[in-house]
Design a protein that fits this description.
Blueprint lengths: L9 H26 L9 H7 L4 H23 L4 H10 L12 E2 L4 H12 L1 H15 L8 H19 L1 H11 L2 E2 L5 H15 L6 H19 L3 E5 L5 E4 L1 H7 L18 H10 L4 E9 L2 E13 L11 E10 L1 H46 L3 H29 L9 E4 H15 L6 E5 L5 E4 L1 H18 L5 E8 L3 E7 L30 H11 L3 E7 L3 E9 L2 H11 L1
Parallel strand pairs: 9-11
Antiparallel strand pairs: 1-2, 3-4, 3-7, 5-6, 6-7, 8-10, 11-12, 12-14, 13-14
Helix pairs in contact: 1-3, 5-6, 6-7, 7-8, 13-14, 13-15, 15-16, 16-17
């Protein structure tokens, strides 16, 4: 074993060494010179040995060690250490001083540069051997480039050289040839991570205030690691220093494969996603769609800068890193898509009776015409009957086509397409008429045939069907429902106005909440307007409802135009 006393001084060591040598010379060397005739002192050393009951060697060993220890301790206590002695004391400890972590990052960026730096002092062969040995001790690869790992390599080389050259010489060589860059941008954030790693592996038992601070540190770090949101903290040059458990689960990449590397070196799609967000001006990006294993996922992204506490948050150069949060919305998005599909299925159920009635009439006509054709001989009448049959089949196909388009579930995040808004409005009116054929409500549509919209046609159709169905339910026979579509430079605006009973004032703030309905049980699911609001939000649009009880309701939907949409319409108009 090795005894360590950090308060020892150089003068104490020299005093103890001198005293021990003097006693050793007096007890052994002096009698030898006297017996050989070179020196005559007149002292009776054998009698002195016997007075203590010791042999000559026992006497010399006991008193030389006693004198050595007393002088070493005594002089060390009454003298002060020089700065060089303090550095040497730290170098001799079994655990590397945590304060050294605050000195910055290693200037050498690769293990080859480590070898080149050491070779100038200890030679090429020794340098290669020491670097190789340190890499093996730490289980590192020779191509390691992470600053935190290179710092560990530097410390391991210093430990190994201490046994070869002594702690003081090893410390001098390492500080000179493998210098630390305290001005590097990664220094503070990476140093904090390094200190935490040293504290986790340290065998030193902290006491008092230090123990309390370490307990608080562990508590805060555990909160960060166990946070249900994905957390990724990076240095100013975008090296990862924190990658919590939620991020491991989201990405499938363990923290040991990420920490210390730059964001753009991470596996796809996380490298491009996080590196792009770190460089973006926006601090919040909602509903970001990311393809993971050929499946769409959605995230809310948030980030905040980490200021240097020594410079202050107002200093432009005070940023020491970024912390980014990822909120997984995939399950919520999937659930909302299932709710939307359930709402469509409920609407289809309400359409069933109307569809049967609308299809039944043309089928009856087709059957009658087909029976008459058996005995008909006149070519003109046969041709006319065939035309009537084709006309009725087109009518049936149109009804079924509208129903199929509306019921199609589609896929979440499907590509938008350009479609004619007038045709979509007409299809929605046809579907509502099928479900509410008993109500004699007049529909007035004001929309240019050339007006086009970019979006998910099936989901926009669902919006129109829900809004028109609500307007029809609120109307009395003979009432009029107006649909007005217009556009400006940025938006396509759709207005729906009915002459119904209106919406009570206390319900106007909650009508978009899921499962809220004013209809009787069995007549409504409470999903219609919530799905309308969700779909409009997905299209970056707006919806507003103005209603005065007793006078009707006005719904305004505004959907953004895309540049290619405007150019397409301009080409049509010309």
């Amino acid at each position: 074993g090795v005894l360590s006393w950090p308060q020892a001084t150089r003068l104490g060591f020299l005093a103890g060494l001198t005293g021990g040598i003097a006693v050793w010379g007096y007890a052994l060397l002096l009698p030898l010179l006297e017996r050989s005739g070179f020196l005559h002192t007149g002292l009776s050393l054998p009698s002195l040995h016997h007075s203590f009951g010791m042999e000559q060697w026992q006497f010399a060993t006991f008193w030389s060690l006693t004198c050595n220890g007393l002088l070493f301790v005594g002089v060390s206590l009454i003298t002060r250490q020089s700065p060089e002695e303090k550095d040497a004391a730290r170098a001799c400890r079994s655990d590397v001083s945590l304060s050294s972590a605050l000195k910055g990052v290693v200037a050498a960026g690769t293990t080859q540069q480590f070898t080149q730096g050491l070779a100038e002092i200890v030679g090429q062969d020794t340098a290669e051997q020491e670097v190789k040995q340190a890499l093996e001790d730490l289980g590192m690869a020779a191509d390691e480039i992470r600053p935190g790992e290179l710092r560990r390599l530097r410390e391991q080389i210093e430990r190994n050289l201490s046994g070869l050259l002594g702690p003081q010489m090893a410390h001098i060589i390492i500080n000179r040839q493998l210098a630390m860059d305290s001005e590097a941008k990664t220094a503070l954030a990476d140093s904090i991570r390094h200190i935490e790693e040293q504290l986790e592996s340290s065998r030193t038992q902290l006491k008092g205030l230090s123990a309390d601070m370490d307990t608080l540190r562990r508590f805060h770090r555990q909160i960060l690691l166990d946070l249900p949101l994905g957390v990724c903290a990076v240095t100013p040059d975008h090296r990862v220093v924190v990658w919590n458990l939620a991020m491991e689960i989201l990405s499938g990449v363990p923290s040991r494969q990420v920490v210390g590397y730059r964001l753009n070196a991470l596996p796809a799609p996380w490298g491009d996603l996080l590196a792009g967000f770190a460089l973006a001006q926006d601090k919040h990006i909602p509903h970001m769609e990311v393809a993971i294993e050929n499946r769409p996922h959605w995230f809310n992204l948030h980030k905040a800068t980490i200021p240097d506490p020594q410079l202050g948050a107002s200093n432009a150069e005070s940023r020491t890193g970024l912390v980014m949060l990822l909120e997984d919305l995939t399950d919520l998005e999937t659930l909302e898509a299932e709710l939307a599909h359930s709402d469509r299925l409920a609407s289809i159920g309400r359409l069933a009776a109307g569809v049967a009635h609308e299809i039944g009439n043309p089928i009856t006509g087709i059957a009658s015409l087909a029976q008459n054709l058996r005995d008909e001989k006149e070519p003109e009448i046969i041709e006319e009957s065939i035309s009537c049959i084709l006309q009725q089949t087109k009518r049936i196909s149109s009804i079924i086509g509208s129903l199929m388009n509306f019921s199609r579930s589609g896929s979440i995040g499907s590509d938008y397409q350009t479609f004619k808004l007038k045709q979509t409005i007409d299809d929605a009116i046809s579907l509502v008429k099928l479900a509410r054929s008993g109500k004699q409500v007049e529909y007035n549509v004001s929309c240019r045939k050339k007006l086009r919209l970019v979006g998910d046609r099936q989901r926009i159709s669902q919006v129109l069907v829900n809004l028109l169905a609500n307007a029809c339910d609120a109307s009395k026979p003979g009432d009029r429902i107006e649909i007005i579509a217009s556009q400006d430079d940025e938006y396509v605006q759709l207005e729906l106005m009915d002459q119904g009973q209106g919406i009570p004032e206390q319900d106007q703030n909650v009508i978009f909440e899921p499962f809220f309905t004013t209809k009787k049980p069995g007549e409504g699911t409470g999903l219609g307007l919530s799905m309308v609001y969700k779909i409009i939000q997905e299209h970056q649009g707006e919806i507003k409802i103005d209603s005065v009880p007793g006078t009707g309701t006005r719904v305004v939907v505004r959907l953004p135009q895309h540049r290619d949409q405007q150019e397409h319409e301009a080409d049509i108009d010309h």
